[in-house]
Amino acid sequence: MKYITRLKIAWANTTIVNKLSFLLTLVIAAANIAYVCYARKQFITMSGQLGEMQSSSKQTDQLIGLYGQQVGELRRQASDTHELAVQAKNQADAVRGQLPELKLAAKASQNAANIARDTLQISQGAYVSIGRKDGVIAEFKKSTSPKFSDGLVMYFQNSGHLPATFNWGIEPSTLPLRPHPFAPMMRTRNKKTGAISESFSGAAVIGGESVQQFTVGDLPPGFIDSMSQSNQPLTVNGTYEYCDELGRYSCKMFSLYYQRIPYDNFRLLIEQECPDRSFLGKTVPDPEEETLPVCTNQQTPRFPNR
Q1: Which of 37, 188, 285, 287 has the fewest CB atoms found within 10 Å of its own CB?
Q2: 0.90 surpassed by pTM
Q3: What's the pLDDT tens digit per position in 216-255?
Q4: Whole-number Å distance between alpha carbons of 70 and 64
C-alpha cells in the first residue's frame, strides 16, 4: 500500500511533459511487444509454408523422376517397335521372294489334284468297247426253222465300274439288214413349260464290268446257209456313244469286216473317236427348246422337273 501511495504522490508531483513522455514510452513498449508477437506468428507461418514448399519440391522431383522413367520406357518401346517393324519388313521381303516358288508349288498341287481326279474317273468310270472278253465282236444267229429269220448280233463290253447309258446305230451295209440309223443323244428343255425330254436311236444301260448283246437286225430266212455258196466280204458300219454317272461322255465310230473263208468271223477294222457331234445327226433343238448337257453326274438329276 505504501508503494502505491508513493507512486500516486510521485505521479501527482510529476509534470505534464514527464507524464506524456511516460505514456508515450508505454505505448512504444506495447507496440514493440505487439510487433514481436506478430513477427513470431509470421515466422511460424512462413516456417510451415517453407516446409510445405520443401515437401512440394520433393514431390516435384519425384514426379520428374517418374516422368523420366516413363520417357525412357517409351523410348525403349519405340525402339522395340522399330525392330519389330524391321523384322516384319524382312519377313515380307522374304515371302515376296518366295512367291514364284509358292506359285509353282500351288500349280503343282493343282496339277496333282487334277491327275488324281482324272485317275479316279478313269478307274471308276464306265469304259465301253466293242466285243466280249473272249474277243468275239459279232456273230450270226441261225434260225432253227427255215420259216423264221436269221439274225446278226453285236457285243459291247463295259470294263469300267459304273454303268453306262448307251446309244448306238447302224448305217446301210452290204448285208440285207433293216436300216437302224444312228441318232445322237439329245436332252432339251421346253422354254415355256420347263419340261425336259430326251431323244436317241437305241438307248440302253450297260452295267459295270459286264457285256451286253445287241441285235443288229434280222436277215432273210436261210441267209446264213446261202453264205456257204459264196465268199463275199461283208461290212457293218455304225456309231455308238455313252455317258456315265461321273458326267463323262464318249462317242466312237466303227467298221466291222466279215469273210467266211478263211476267217469265218467278224473283225474290227476301225474304231475311232467321233468328229464334232453336229456331223452325227440332229443336235440343234427346235426354236421353242433349249439344249441341256447330254451327260449329268450323280448329283444332278436327269429330270429335275419330275
Answers
A1: 287
A2: no
A3: 989 999 888 888 788 888 999 999 999 998 989 999 999 9
A4: 10
